[in-house]
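Final report, Chapter 2: Outcomes

The project's central promise was a pipeline that accepts a single protein chain and returns its three-dimensional structure in a standardized token representation, suitable for archiving and comparison. That pipeline is now operational. To close this chapter, we reproduce one record exactly as it appears in the project archive, with the input sequence first and the structure output second.
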Amino acid sequence: MLAGCGHSAPRQIHARGTPVLRAIYRDGTHHLLVALADGPHGLPPGDCAAPLLIDDASDGVRQITHAEAVDWMKRMQLSGAVRGTCP
């Protein structure tokens, strides 16, 4: 039963938007949420795929550029990822 659920989810997700892989990175003071292309579709334009930097001390969140996100990811550890969509 679980295998059947796992196979149907990607088709349902794709029907509702552009598939993305949302990944969270962390270091000692920040978390970074990024959207990565999930398959051949590429990233959709707009805020849905924009990287978000979260300050652990203040719980403040700010949108950063993709170039800034790449710099942060070099110093961080991958914490987890989940499939999702952008409209």
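Archive annotation: The first strand starts at residue 18 and ends at 26.
This record, like all others produced under the grant, will remain available to the consortium after the project formally closes.
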